[in-house]
Structures are given as structure tokens and as C-alpha cells.
Amino acid sequence: MFTAWRKLSLIATAALLGLPLLVILWVGVELLIGGDYATLSHLWQTVVPEYIRHSLWLLLGVAVGVITLGVSTAWLTTACRFPGQRLLTWALLLPLAMPAYITAYTYTGMLDFAGPVQTTLRDTFGWGYGDYWFPQIRSLGGAILVLSLVLFPYVYLITRATFIQQSATTLEAGRSLGLNPWQCFARLALPLARPAIVTGTTLALMETLADYGTVAYFGVTTFTTGIFRTWYGLGDLNGALQLAGMLLVAVIALMFLERWSRRQARYDQRSSRPAQPFQLHGAKAWLASLVCWLPLVFGFILPALQLASWSLERWQVWVDPDFWQLTFNSFMLALIAAVIVVTMALWLGYGRRQLPTPAVRVSVTFAGLGYAIPGLVIAVGLLLVLSKLDHAIIALSKSWFDYNPGLLLSGTLFALLFAYVVRFLSVSLQTINAGLAEIRPSMDEAARIQGYRPLQVLRKIHLPLLRPSVLTALILVGVDVLKELPATLVLRPFDFNTLAVRAYEMAGDERLADAGPPALMMVLVGLIPVILLSRAMLKSRHSQLTTPTNTTKESDFAPVTA
């Protein structure tokens, strides 16, 4: 009986977390079945072709950008040795700490007409307005550039892990057949790494579809900006739901592509004998160093310096009590959301471990789909559900007590926290599952033999062993919540503000310098998980180099020696 109740509770929890997405699909189908084609027809005739065109060009451009940057840096830092290689191995992860819309603000401040770049050009050559041409950063090309610089670490991290594990004997066989290092990469290493490249690119593209701040600030009309404009600008909820449904279908297609690519990764070859990397000398070594430093400089260092400059200009903001109240709101919201999300992840992850039935596995997997769904889509579906519940509560309260309690769910912190749980559960769930996978099932069996119940096993055995995973999940979710913009914009209470919203509002009013302090605060906090991840990579590498029985080391691409 207790097992049946636990199984039912796990399935019900997963269904509750997926309710906003199910509502969007259901309402979209209901509108179509009911014959409500007027809104859909109007959207198709006016804005949807433009949304599709811009979204496709954005996806194509970002795909090319992240593949070019991610694969080249992954190969060079893994297969070659050159000046700065050790530092670049982990430093190339730093752009992950920079939200895309923050990078968009900094490049606008640097490259627009009044920015330092164009001002220097005019002062140097005596140019005036209209005397020269300069590319517009606020454009589709600018959005592609910014998103590529911020998202390429997804491809870098996954592809580099694959390059590390590839078979050294395969590449040595290519060298024995007369292939030079470039040919070994193009003909052997790159095809073997194709599943990892597709996986990393798919993750970057899902983040691109979910982005709102960058494309909205650059004036690029995509599905996310269209949903926001249709809902808030035109007051057309049905139109917003239909656009959200289209975007949801596109995201699901990308998710299936990512799952398919990850299934193919099992064909990668692994090396039973590590080999030494290529040692580059002279111009080749410095060229490789330049190739790796460029995305780091333009993706993190320059934006961070610009934010620091703006923060110094607005130093008085740092002593303003309102700013620290804003910071407190953001940190408390992130902390509360992280605790709730990690608790839910522990419940679902441990439940799947104890009850690995097909129904439970499918339900928990379904609950973890929210990370691939844009926050704006989740907000639309959640508001539709909570508003109906609020109206039902109000009607019931009026009929029973002749009292109107107002909106108890929608427009409150409850709605915002619910959206965060749906959006970021997957991040925590994957981290917890990785920690649970390292705990042998025999420990559970021994505890059950001694009479411990499942919750006692979790409290006395698993939680002490899961402390690193739990801490990592708390940090990752907290930082993601701190940077989340679309869901926060839609669902926050009217008297509640966060760092992300303040930075967006200041940038929207063209007060870029005023956006510097809240943006810099978010970036500083975002560095925490990146530093932890970097330390984990270095620790793993050190253990591989010092463990005699380890058969997989970082160096996998050895030149054939005579």
C-alpha cells in the first residue's frame, strides 16, 4: 500500500510540473477544433512568416557560430600544446557566466554611435555623422554574434570530453598512412565527435529559442518577442497561446534531435592507451593561442570590463539602500527557489531509484523537460492555469462567505516560484541522479535488511553521500534563477523587482550605465558554478594523470614516432 502511494505521488508530482505545458498544447488543440481560425489566420498572414524567418536565420547563424568556436577550441586545447593552453582549458568556460542579454547591452554600449569605438574613429579621422559606414550591432547579425559568443561553451565542453576519450590508435593509424595533424582532425576525429557536436549545438539552439532579452533589445522579431508583444501589447491571449504552441512544437523537435544524437554517442571509440599531444612551435603555437583567446576576450573579458567601467561611473548605486534591497530580493528568491527545486529533485530522483517502473521513469523524465522550454512559454501556460484557479476560489469564497480574497496564486511569488521549479528542475535532477549513480545499490539492500525504511535510507545514507551533488545543484539552480528574465518579467508581483529585471528596464530606457551595477552583480554570482566546474575538470584531469590504473587520460592524440 505504501509503495503504491509513493508511486502515485511521484506520477502526480510529475504531472503537476508538466501542467503548464500540457495546458498550452490542450488549449491550442481546443482552439483549432473549435474552429477559432481567425486569430491563427491573421497571425499567419502578418507576423508568423517573419517570426519563422528570423528564428530560422538566428538558429542557423548561432549553429554555425557555436560549432566553429566550440569545436576549434576543444580540439586545440585537447590535442595540442601551446602558450596558455592550461589556462584556456578552463577559462573558455567563463562566457557561461555572462547572460546573453547582458552581453548585448555591453556591446551596444561599446559599438553604437556614442560608444567608445565609433567616437575614437571620428576623433582620429575627423569624421562626422554620415561620413562613414559602421555595422549595426542592433540587428539579426548582432544577435547571432552575441549568442554565439555566450553559448559556444556548450559545444566546447561536450566536444572536448569526446576528443579526450577518442581512440589514440585510430589517429596513429591515420598518421601511419601519411595524414598530417589537420587531416587526422578532419577525417578521423571530427566524424567520430559528430554526436557530441550535435548534442552541444542542440543545447545551444534550445537556449537560443528561449532567449528573450537579447532579441528584444536588438529589435529582432522572433517567437519569444512575438508572444510577449501579442499578449501584453495587443492583449490577445489566444494569439499568444497559439504562438507559444508553435514554439513548443519546435522545442520538442529539438529535444528529440538531442536525444537521438546522444543515443549515437555510444559509437565513439575509446583509447586503452593514452598518448601525448602535439607540441606546437613558432607561428603555429601562437596562432593556436590566438584562436582560443579570441572567443574568450570577446565573449567574457570585454563585456566584463565594460560592466566594471559602468559600475565605476555609477559608484553611488553601490551605496544606495534600494540597490541592496533589490539584491536581497534577488538572492532570497534564488535561494528559496533553489531549495524547493533541489528538494523536488531529491524526491523524484530517489523515487525513481527505489521504484524503477516504466510509469515512474517516464513520469520523472517528463517532469525534467522544463529546462528545454522557454520561460515565457511556461509563464503563459502557468498564468492560464492559476488565473482559472483564482477565479474559482473567488467564486467559491463569495458564495460561501460573501468575501473576495483577491488573487491568491497568479501575480504572486507563488506563481514565480512554480515557474522556476518547472523551468530548472532538470538541472537539479541531473546533478542528483549523477550523485545517486555513484552509490552502490548494495548499500540500499543492506539498509533494508537492517529494517530501515526508504526515507530513513535517504536521510541516514544517501544524503551524507550526496552533499557535494546537492550543493552543486543548489548553486547551479540559484544562478539560473538569478539570470532568468522572461518568466520573471511576466510573473513577478507588481511591487517586486530583481537584478535581471532592473538591468533590462535600465537598458530598455537606454540607460546602459545604470544597468551596469545589477548586471555586474549577476555576472559575479554566475562565476561561482563556472569556477566549481573548472575545479572539477582540473581535479579530474589530475586524478587521471596520477592514477596508474586509469586508462583514459586527457592526451589522446599522439604523433607517430619512428
The geometry reads as globular
Backbone CA Rg: 26 Å
Integer average pLDDT: 79
What is the number of beta strands?
2
Straight-line distance between termini = 70 Å
Strand order, sheet with most strands? 1-2
Low-confidence blocks of residues: 265-270, 547-562
Return the string of H and E elements: HHHHEHHHHHHHHHHEHHHHHHHHHHH
* Main pleated-sheet profile: 2 strands, parallel
Instruction: Tell me what portion of residues adopts beta-strand conformation.
Output: under 5%
Report helical residue fraction: over 70%
Helix/strand/pairing category = mainly alpha
Family: Belongs to the binding-protein-dependent transport system permease family.
Pfam families: BPD_transp_1 (PF00528)
Membrane topology: Multi-pass membrane protein
Organism: Pseudidiomarina fusca
For this entry, give a set of tags.
disordered C terminus, 562 residues, two-stranded parallel ribbon, mainly alpha, 25 helices
Structure, explained:
It is a single chain. With 562 residues, the protein is an all-alpha fold. 76% of the residues lie in helices and 1% in strands. The protein has 25 helices and two strands. The chain has helices at 2-17, 19-33, 38-46, 48-79, 85-91, 100-111, 116-125, 140-165, 168-176, 181-192, 194-210, 213-218, 223-233, 237-264, 282-313, 321-354, 358-367, 375-401, 413-437, 441-449, 454-465, 467-483, 486-491, 499-508, 512-546; strands spanning 80-81, 278-279. Strands 1-2 form a two-stranded parallel sheet. α1 (2-17) runs parallel beside α17 (358-367) and α13 (223-233) packs antiparallel against α14 (237-264). The chain starts with a helix and ends in a 16-residue tail after the last helix. Keywords: Cell membrane, Membrane, Transmembrane, Transmembrane helix, Transport.
